[in-house]
Design goal:
Blueprint lengths: L2 H19 L3 H17 L4 H27 L16 E6 L7 E4 L2 E7 L11 E8 L2 E6 L2
Parallel strand pairs: 3-5
Antiparallel strand pairs: 1-2, 1-4, 2-3, 4-5
């Protein structure tokens, strides 16, 4: 079997292993094996192929992996789903108490409870969404 084909198979196995582990290290090794497959196809002798693999893998793991991990570990900047509703304003549709009520948040009607269970919020009042618990918005009147 040709050496370039062996390196290509190794690169494929490492790429598949990276998909299951998500460590980025195996991906860098797979890329190094792919580069080495290219050099083997050009006819580079086996000792130099191992040298190319070692150099490219070392450069990838030492320099590129920390950059990739920094990008993966950045906090999410946008909120989605029900998390995006927290802090939004809403309008009371039917009286909201500590036991229940209805509010309209961005055009959608939600079940609601007062964030402070002693409050009674009349219809038409502007409120802030403090929390979402299941499908119920916990609201507090705007001052």
């Amino acid at each position: 079997m040709d050496p370039w084909l062996v390196w290509l198979i190794v690169a494929g196995f490492l790429a598949v292993a990276e998909i299951f582990t998500l460590t980025t290290a195996l991906g860098m090794l797979g890329a190094a094996a792919l580069v080495t497959a290219g050099t083997a196809a050009l006819g580079l002798p086996a000792p130099f192929q191992f040298l190319v693999f070692t150099v490219v893998a070392t450069l990838g793991v030492v320099f590129l992996r920390p950059v990739a991990l920094r990008h993966l570990s950045q906090p999410q900047t946008e909120r989605f789903g029900i998390d995006a509703l927290i802090g939004k304003s809403a309008y009371v549709v039917s009286e909201v108490t500590g036991l229940g009520g209805r509010v309209r948040i961005e055009g959608e009607e939600w079940t609601a409870r007062a964030y402070d269970e002693t409050l009674v919020i009349p219809p038409g009042t502007a409120v802030d969404v403090m929390e979402i618990s299941g499908s119920t918005a916990l609201v507090y009147p705007r001052e």
